[in-house]
Each structure stands twice: as C-alpha cells, then as structure tokens.
Here is the input.
Amino acid sequence: MIDIIKDIPQYTRKDFVSDQEVKWCAGCGDFSILSAVQNALPEVGVKKEDFVFVSGIGCSSRFPYYVDTYGFHGIHGRAAAIASGVKLSNPKLSVWIATGDGDSMAIGGNHFIHILRRNIDVNIIMFNNKIYGLTKGQYSPTTDLGHVTKTSPYGTIEHPFKPGQLAMGAGGTFYARTVDTDPKQMKEVFIEAAKHRGTSMVEVLQNCVIFNNKVHAEITNKENRDNNQIYLKHGQKMIFGANGEKGLVLDGLKLKVVTIGQDGYTMDHVLVHNVEEEDPTMAFLLARMSLPEFPIAMGVIRAFKTDVYDDLMTAQIANVKANSKIKNMTDLVNSGNTFSL
Here is the structure.
C-alpha cells in the first residue's frame, strides 16, 4: 500500500524537474502533460523517493528521463509488465506508466488489458495522438477510420479502439480523460488518479504537431470547446455549453443532449455524475460519446472501489506462511518423497 503521509517535505514543481534536456518537437502536447504531472506530484502526498515512472517505446516513453524520480525505460509494449513487477515487489511505491496509444494498445495490448483486469495499484497515463509519432506517422489502433497516413495512403479501413471502452471492458476500475490544452484539468485528473486504489487509467488527448497536427482541434479550439467538451465531476450535474445551458439526460437506455428550459426539460432532468457505481454501464455510455451528436466527456468518468491485487497478494502470502508446515529450506527439501541408497 502506498504511504500517504503528512510529514513530508513541502515539494514544488521544481523538485520533479530533471536535469535532462527535453527532446520533443517544438509545440508537442507532451510538454504540457509533463508540466501538469510535475505540478500534480507535490500534492499527491508521497515521498519523492517513492515515485517510479515506467515507460515502453515512443515519444511519450521518454517521460522517465524528464521527471526527477526513479524510473525505468522499458521495451515496446512492456511497460505494464515491468510496472507490475515494481509495484508487487515494493507495494509502498507510487508507480506510474507513461505510454502511447500504439505502445499500450498494439504491441502492448495484452499487458494493457491484464493490468486493468488484475487491478494492480498503478497509474497509467496514455498519450493518445491517434498516430505513431516516433516512427514517423503510421496509423495506430486509435487512428480514425478513413484517415490518410504513411501506412494508409488511401485511408485506413480499420475501426479504431476507443480506449475508455477497452479499459472498462477489461474490468478497469478507474478511467479518466483529459486534454493537453487544459493544464488545470490535467493536474486535477492526475491527482485523482493517484488517490485511486487500483489501476487508474488516464487517457490524454494529445497533439502531434508533426504527423497528426490538430487531430483534436474540434474539441480544443476556442470556438467549439464549450459545446464539444463536457467536464464531468462527481456529484455534479452533467451540464456543458458556454453558459451551462445544455445537459445530458437518459432517453430510454441511451443518453441524450437537451437544452435546459426547452422541450419541457429542466435542471431536474439532468443526470448527476457518479463515478463510484459498481455497474459500469453509465461510465461506458459516457466514455463512448462522440461528435457531432455528443460532447466528448472529460474528467474522471469511473472510479469504482474494489479489491486491489496488491492487497490480496500480500494477504495470501501472509496466510500461506502462517499455515504452512514448511518454514525453511530444510523443511522444503524433506517435504516430499526423498531418495536414499
């Protein structure tokens, strides 16, 4: 279990800035994500030496070099496996995974779904720019259908993953979405992810200025963002729009966007966000909303509390030790049939 303690130094952002030169393209959304993480870590309540950042391969995977904590730069798609080992060998650590949409959901897809299924207490930050950036612009598992890339010159014919749906389908207990153009929102989401006991998965909609520039422009530009984003907060009404005039209601088994005060809809009809529901149906509906019918859901969408793998493993080991007849190597060697001349 992570030690959340009060008597720790009063850290600032500077305490988590490394001395390494940050080697991302000018204007890359990764800079904003890095800054938001560095701003969030001082408020998590964990000793600096107890943070560990693990990564695979990709632009996002340079992250461990740029945060002044312990870190491990792994191989392609294996960050979740490495992070699992780190956490289970030393449960007090606050373990973070920095990964991309290709790293985590293509070659790393198997590890990704199983760390969510197991509910190991780690934090995943998935940078989703819907492209392979480091390897120069091939389409990824999240690239939009029909998008023209280096490896789909006539448009990709593959249906993309929706990371939120995949996470919840794998049994994920925490899923949040945020965007690289909103540092305040990112910081809030990262802190909530750190507080969650179990696997937290944060999808950051991130811009690749070189190979997929303005991929999220519909929801980030000033003209559209109020109508095309809805920032969800636990216990609050699901409203959005420049003046909070729009809301989400249930229409049978589906969500529906309404204008409050029109067609008989009042604020009382608007749904209240509840991240703690055991049934993931509502979270699934919110995660799959897409333009132009719906706004894109931001913030913490699901944060369900349940058994955590680390705790179950620790308890099981303690129980076996307490009840086993084998107490040492001699007992083990002599525990079964032995051969003698």
